Amino acid sequence: MGVAEKLHSAVESFIRTPRKMLIDGKWVEAASGKTFETPNPATGQTLARVAEGDAEDIDRAVRAARKAFDEGPWSHTGPNARERILLKIADLIEQHADELAEIETLDNGKTLTESRNVDIPAAAATFRYYAGWPNKLYGETNPSEEMFFNYTLREPVGVCGQIIPWNFPLLMAAWKLGPALACGNTCVLKPAEQTPLTALRLGELLLEAGVPPGVVNIVPGFGETAGRALVRHRMVDKIAFTGSTEVGKEIQREAAATLKRVSLELGGKSPNIVFSDADMQAAAEGAIGGVFFNQGQVCCAGTRLFVEQKVHDAFVDTLTQSVQTMKQGSGLEPETNIGPLVSQEQLERVTGYLDIGKKEGAKVVIGGERNTQKGLEKGYFVKPTIFTGVKNDMRIAREEIFGPVVSVLPFKDENDAVLQGNDTLYGLAAGVWTRDVSKAHRVARAIRAGTVWVNCYNVFDAAAPFGGYKESGYGRELGRYALDLYTQVKSVWLRL
User: Fold this and answer.
1) Where are the alpha helices (DSSP H) in 236-343?
2) 50, 28 in Cβ contact below 8 A?
3) What's the CA gap between 342 and 333, in Å, rounded?
4) Mean pLDDT for the chain?
5) How far apart are CA 174 and CA 176, in angstroms?
6) Are residues 271 and 390 in contact, defined by beta-carbon separation less than 8 angstroms?
7) Which residues neighbour 154 within 8 Å (Cβ) at sequence distance 6 or greater?
8) Separation of alpha carbons 309 and 181, rounded Å
9) Are the C-beta atoms of residues 265 and 475 closer than 8 Å to each other?
10) CB of 12 within 8 A of CB of 99?
């Protein structure tokens, strides 16, 4: 059965129609007239054509956002009205959940089960959570001398440039737009060129929900053109970026010229630590999900799997047996457990690291190559891979691969686990598996990471902060902490 036969009619219509960009409440072509193709990762064939934004389009979008913030309706929209709009966005996402899930799976390659049960509900939940904040952005009255009255106002930052990655396209758009809109900002969103489609469909839903023109502008394009222009633009007050550490560093350098505020959620090489006293079945399931969820294309994936020496071999055997049963194929197929990588570029990156691991002396227990079986040979499929014999100084243990590849490393005791776990440039997340509550707390405190999961992995909630230590970035998304990214505090003195 062909992929097209399985699609909702609304999805077929959406991908057949060349997609435009959203600027000032209107769907427009790129100023240059250029378009680019976005492929279906499962087949390598063109999925849709999209307007290719560049510096001129970014300038139009930023000016629209500036006007909407400085003069337009958004700066005069009260907190209750913003709440209603955000709730409406959440409702519309849920109403179109099946459609959005299919578009996400087609564009990204992830399984439809993940799109429908994780990405889309979490995106709706994020907007719904931030709908509760507009009327709770309190200022304070401060103690002062009797002749003065001093108070603070928490105000929106202004125009926010938001650059999102391709691994969770709709969800990352929600993580950025939800708190920004709740706080009263206007936005220019640049989706990843690999996966622009759900962001553009979201744009239609935003207009339907009543978001005024210019408040949210969506400009698809490439990082070197559209992304760089957004970061450099002097009318942009803040940049929020999720992506690679390399690009995050470049954004920080570029932003220095205008001293705009920056928040960065970057890469990771997360340690997932399994002690011998853990529930081995639960730990194995957690390890599998921690690295192979979304084909390993997750910034917080537990790609460095530390296993206590006394249970190392048995644990690897359990992992291998589980991986052997994983069905790889198109994300639209209901029996698929692991889909393709997002792009040809990512395929080459991951297979390159597989070669590096072999040359470094690591042992491939299972996988270790591209999947070219019949029906998959034209897609971007890499077999789920387990490496053993890995040392913590090997490149496959130090550099972010961003694919379905896990390195298993032995450790001697608790101190050794912490030392090896922290021996990384990154600090986004970590996992700890043990029945010893005291040990769990000690290790959670000792690991330098923004999120530590104990006897679980990849658990998220819109109310819980997420962000990194070290070269995994700074700033915290989600929860009340994200409000600090999108507001600034003004101190007002009044002489009595």
Assistant:
1) 245-255, 280-292, 312-324
2) no
3) 17
4) 96
5) 5
6) no
7) 137, 138, 139, 483, 487, 488, 489, 490
8) 49
9) yes
10) no
Strands (E) in 338-427, as ranges, are 363-366, 385-388, 405-411, 426-427
Phi, psi at residue 484, to the nearest 5°?
-70, -25
pLDDT in tens, 232-278: 999 999 999 999 999 999 999 999 999 999 999 999 999 999 999 99
Give the end-to-end CA distance of the chain in Å, rounded to a whole number: 77
pTM for the whole thing? Answer: 0.95
Helix or strand holding residue 469 (H, E): strand 469-470
Q: How far apart are CA 143 and CA 115, in angstroms?
A: 51
* pLDDT digits 0-9 by tens, 175-224: 999 999 999 999 999 999 999 999 999 999 999 999 999 999 999 999 99
- Locate 221 and state its tokens: 């394009």
Among candidate residues 343, 482, 399, 458, the one with its CA nearest the CA of residue 43: 343
Q: CA 138, CA 151: separation in Å to the nearest integer?
A: 11
C-alpha distances (whole Å) from 288 to each of 185, 293, 404 are 39, 8, 10
Distances (CA, A) of 284 to 49, 206, 292: 41, 41, 12
**Cα–Cα distance, 394 to 392 (Å, whole number):** 6
**Distance between CA atoms of residues 61 and 230, nearest Å:** 9
Cα–Cα distance, 315 to 330 (Å, whole number)? 29
What phi-psi label fits residue 180: left (phi over 0), alpha (psi between -120 and 50 degrees) or beta?
Answer: alpha
**Which two three-digit tokens encode residue 461?**
């909630």
Backbone angles phi, psi at 154, to 5 degrees: -100, 110
User: How many CB atoms sit inside 10 A of residue 456's CB?
Assistant: 13
User: Active-site residue numbers?
Assistant: 265, 299
Can you list the domains of the chain with their CATH numbers?
A: 3-266+473-493 (3.40.605.10), 271-461 (3.40.309.10)
Nearest of 26, 25, 30 to residue 50 by alpha carbon: 30
pLDDT higher than threshold 70 for residue 3:
no
What number of CA atoms fall less than 13 Å from residue 262's CA on the CB side? 24
Measured CA angle at 236 (ends 164, 231), to 5 deg: 50
Q: Are 476 and 428 in contact (CB under 8 A)?
A: no
Collapsed DSSP state (helix, strand, coil) of residue 145: coil
Diameter of the chain by CA atoms? 82
Using alpha carbons, list the distances in angstroms from residue 313 to 175, 261, 286, 324. Answer: 40, 48, 17, 17
What does the buried/exposed string (b/e) look like for 97-127 if buried means 16 or more CB atoms within 10 Å of the residue's CB? Answer: bebbbbbbbbbbbbbbebbbebbbbbbbbbb
Structure tokens, 239? 């940049």
User: How far apart are the C-alpha atoms of 353 and 363, rounded to whole Å?
Assistant: 13
